[in-house]
Specification:
Strand content: 5-15%
Strand order of the largest sheet: 11-12-10-9-7-13
EC number: 2.7.13.3
Helix content: 55-70%
Oligomer: single chain
Number of helices: 13
Organism: Streptacidiphilus monticola
Largest sheet: 6 strands, mixed
GO molecular function: ATP binding
Order of helices and strands: HHHEEHEEEHHHHHEHEEHEEHHEEE
Subcellular location: Cell membrane
Shape: rod-shaped
Radius of gyration: 50 Å
Membrane topology: Multi-pass membrane protein
Length: 454
């Protein structure tokens, strides 16, 4: 915007300056021309008194030499008897024409113009005074005047650029503050507001007011949404309490233990939702979830917990399973609840889309800048991996909605990673989840060994 103002001011000032300077330059040139012809008339007039007294060559030569034009060799006198004093640049016919007309004339000659002035002498005869006007005299001082005019034009353009810079600073500064506020709001800073500077244009002040109003409204809506999520989650505690008490009354046995374990897990998830919603609601300028929140978790711990949870069902269905690479802490920039949801989606797909007795494996690999999580199975595989990764496309496996892998993909892409689907070493499908770790210390991957959690 600032450069645009500069260009507009320079263009407008230049056009205005040219509109005045071009006529002035032409007028200066014409003035120099008129000055040269006037000077020639004066030089011719200095010889007139001497010719009126005498036409003797010996007496006229000192008079010619005493004039500026005569001393410079620019003056000549054509006498009535055909005699000539000084160098001439015109033809005899031109001299006769001036003599016959009795009026002064100008003739174009090599190197300039010749001014011819008839002068009456004794005996009713006419002599002609010739004054040469060189081309240099016609343009004398024109170049200097044009340079001065160009200097004036440059000064005017410089002044206009200075004025444009002052105006541009006000406008561009306000626009930059508004753009910075919009970027901060887009990055999740709900506390950002655009200051309303007094020197800003009225339109940008109105835009700042509208932006601040919008930011206040967004903050209020996000706070209300979080409160609603916390309240709705809190309402689940009552039926969960009843369910837990009923589960405790089931007595002993494997089904009872599984039910109590599931209820406890559900209670933990609900509590986590309530805490997360409350904490983010109380924060000032919290980031929008999934954008700029500085969260992390131990991927190995989360994966071990989720595999242990699904291992109970795997034992019921007589599925062989293994977990490798989750022996030591592995930090990733993902919330524990989000990573747990990814693992549930991946392992849930194995149980939903493969038959009982189908083996599966979970492998965790750590690289200097990423963590790879591989979930493999010995099932029939995925016919169309590209379609499986597109939200809502469930044609890859019968009965699939396509939402599970989409959840995994969005979590991976939030860290700068990705998700790929391909064949596994077990003969079925393998989903590779890559979570990027920005600024992670370089570590050489340790050798992995599989171990069962039985």
């Amino acid at each position: 915007m600032r450069w645009a103002l500069f260009k507009v001011c320079v263009a407008v000032t230049t056009m205005v300056a040219l509109a005045f300077l071009i006529p002035l330059g032409l007028m200066v040139r014409e003035t120099a021309r008129e000055r040269a012809f006037t000077a020639a008339e004066r030089q011719a007039a200095t010889v007139g008194p001497a010719l009126a007294i005498t036409t003797d060559r010996d007496r006229l030569e000192p008079a010619l030499a005493s004039s500026d034009a005569g001393a410079a060799g620019l003056l000549a006198v054509h006498l009535p008897d055909g005699g000539l004093l000084g160098p001439t640049h015109v033809s005899a016919a031109q001299v006769r024409q001036v003599t016959a007309d009795g009026r002064s004339a100008t003739a174009v000659v090599p190197g300039g113009y010749a001014y011819l002035e008839p002068v009456g002498v004794s005996g009713g005869k006419v002599a002609v005074v010739e004054v040469l006007i060189p081309d240099a005299e016609l343009t004398k001082g024109v170049t200097t005047a044009w340079l001065l005019l160009c200097g004036v034009a440059l000064v005017l353009v410089a002044i206009s650029v200075g004025v444009a810079d002052r105006l541009g600073t006000r406008i561009v500064g306000s626009a930059r503050r508004l753009a910075a506020g919009a970027r901060a709001l887009g990055d999740g800073d709900l506390a950002v507001r655009v200051p309303q500077a007094d020197d800003s244009p009225p339109e940008l002040r109105d835009a700042a007011v509208a932006f601040n109003t919008m930011a206040d409204r967004i903050t209020a809506l996000v706070a209300a949404e979080r409160e609603l999520a916390a309240d709705l989650s809190h309402r689940l505690r009552t039926p969960l309490t009843v369910l837990r008490l009923n589960a405790e009354s089931l007595g002993s046995g494997e089904p009872a233990e599984q039910t109590r374990h599931a209820v406890a897990q559900l209670e933990r998830e609900v509590d986590q939702i309530i805490r997360t919603a409350r904490e983010r609601g109380r924060e000032t300028g919290t980031a929008v979830p999934g954008r700029a929140a500085a969260v992390s978790c131990d991927a190995a711990e989360v994966i071990r917990e989720r595999v242990e949870f699904w291992s109970v069902l795997a034992e019921d269905e007589d599925r062989a399973w293994s977990l490798a690479g989750a022996e030591r802490p592995v930090q990733v920039p993902v919330a524990a609840t989000e990573l747990a949801a990814c693992m549930d989606a991946l392992l849930g797909n194995v149980f939903r889309h493969t038959g009982e007795g189908t083996a599966f494996a979970v492998d965790v690999h750590e690289t200097p800048d990423a963590v790879l999580v591989l979930v493999s199975d010995a099932g029939p595989g995925i016919a169309d991996p590209a379609s499986a990764l597109r939200r809502g496309h469930g044609a890859a496996r019968e009965g699939s909605t396509g939402l599970g892998l989409d959840i995994v993909r969005r979590v991976a892409e939030a860290t700068g990673g990705d998700v790929t689907v391909g064949p596994s070493v077990l003969g079925g499908a393998e989903v590779r989840l890559r979570l990027h770790r920005a600024g992670a210390p370089a570590k050489a991957p340790a050798p992995r060994r599989r171990r069962a959690l039985r």
